[in-house]
Design brief:
The protein is mainly alpha-helical. Helix content is 78%, strand content 0%.
C-alpha cells in the first residue's frame, strides 16, 4: 500500500513458499497486474482457478487480464467455463463478447451483448460496445438506438458523445456530428480522436 510493489511481490512469493494460501496468491496476482506483469499474473490466476474451480470471480479476473494481453482465444475459453457454471452472468457474457469480437466474430459478439443486456439492462458498457459493433457493420439505426439509450440513462459522457457524433456522421447529419464533436472537445480538450474525426467531417464539407 506504500507504493513498493517489488518488495510486496517478493514477500508474497516468500510467504507462499512457507504456506499455500489463496488470499496471499490473490494479493500476488493483483500486485502483478498493477505493475503490468500480466503473464505472471495469469499464472497465479490459473493456480487460483485450479484451487477453486467453482469460483467464477477468479475466472472473470483471468478473462480481464487475458483481454489486456489480447489473448482472445484464452479469454473466450475462460468465459465459456465460467458460463457453464452461471449462464446468466451479464458481466461474463460481456467479457465473452469482447473475446469473440477480438477474434473478428462480430455477429456472435453482438448476440452475446444482447444476451448480457437482456440479463442486466443497466450494463452500460454492453450497450456502448454493441453500438460500436453495429456502427462498424453499417447498422446506423441500431447503433443510434443504443447511443440514445446511453445518453437518456447515463447522461453525456465523453464516450457517449463520441458515439453520438460517429452515428450522426454515418447517417449524414454533419451538423449534429460537428455539434457532438464540439461537446467532446469541450469535455476533453486533449481528445485527439475527436479532433481527427471532426476534421474529417469539415474536410468532407469542403471546409479545408
Amino acid at each position: 500500500r506504500s507504493g513498493q510493489p517489488d518488495i510486496a511481490i517478493h514477500c508474497f512469493e516468500e510467504a507462499l513458499k512457507i504456506h499455500e494460501d489463496m488470499e496471499i496468491r490473490d494479493y500476488l496476482a493483483r500486485t502483478l497486474i498493477s505493475v503490468d506483469a500480466l503473464p505472471q499474473a495469469i499464472e497465479q490466476l490459473q493456480l487460483l482457478a485450479q484451487a477453486a474451480p467453482d469460483n467464477t470471480e477468479i475466472l472473470k479476473q483471468w478473462a480481464r487480464v487475458a483481454y489486456m494481453q489480447e489473448e482472445y482465444a484464452m479469454m473466450e475459453e475462460v468465459c465459456t467455463k465460467a458460463l457453464s457454471m452461471d449462464d446468466k452472468d451479464a458481466t461474463t457474457l460481456y467479457l465473452k463478447a469482447q473475446a469473440v469480437a477480438g477474434q473478428g466474430n462480430t455477429i456472435p459478439a453482438i448476440a452475446l451483448l444482447t444476451q448480457a443486456i437482456t440479463t442486466d439492462n443497466t450494463l452500460a458498457s454492453a450497450y456502448l460496445m454493441r453500438a460500436r459493433l453495429l456502427l462498424g457493420m453499417g447498422d446506423t439505426q441500431g447503433a443510434a438506438e443504443d447511443a440514445n439509450h446511453l445518453t437518456a440513462n447515463y447522461g453525456e459522457s465523453e464516450e457517449t458523445l463520441m458515439l453520438q457524433a460517429q452515428v450522426a456522421h454515418a447517417q449524414g447529419d454533419t451538423a449534429k456530428a460537428l455539434q457532438q464533436y464540439d461537446k467532446v472537445i469541450e469535455l476533453n480538450p486533449f481528445s485527439a480522436e475527436a479532433y481527427k474525426e471532426r476534421g474529417q467531417v469539415k474536410y468532407e464539407q469542403g471546409n479545408t
